[in-house]
Give the backbone structure.
Amino acid sequence: MRILVSACLLGVCCRYDGKSKPCQAVMDLAKKHELIPVCPEQLGGLATPRPPAEIQGEYVRKADGGDVTAQYTKGALEAARLYELLDCDLAILKSRSPSCGLGEIYDGSFSGRLTAGNGVTAGLFLEKGINVISDEDEEKVSSL
């Protein structure tokens, strides 16, 4: 299978804080599958490191109130384009991210509280019918 993966899960230092969140179970998939690393936030033109952002209603905002919705939307569209262009079979996205979170994201208050919802990229992938799972769905990841 060809799997599009949040680059931070593969050890790429592309998160807002300039770090990565390597996931051994996801990295182990490289033994059996072709993994394609992407960072929608970088694809949208945001720098690394960058201020943290969270979804607030229809917008993605930095803690200082700055609107980065356009960059998140552009990154999501570019990630979806890569998925389709490279004929991927699946996407594994980083949990809780305002881009990649699937089913649960930070609530927009910058307090660390979680709420039901999807990041911008995860939401677009679901709208397009793209097969997507979270890195934290260990059962699905380990069955690949």
Q: What stands out?
A: The chain has five helices and eight strands. The longest helix spans residues 69-85. Helices lie at 24-27, 40-43, 69-85, 120-127, 138-142.
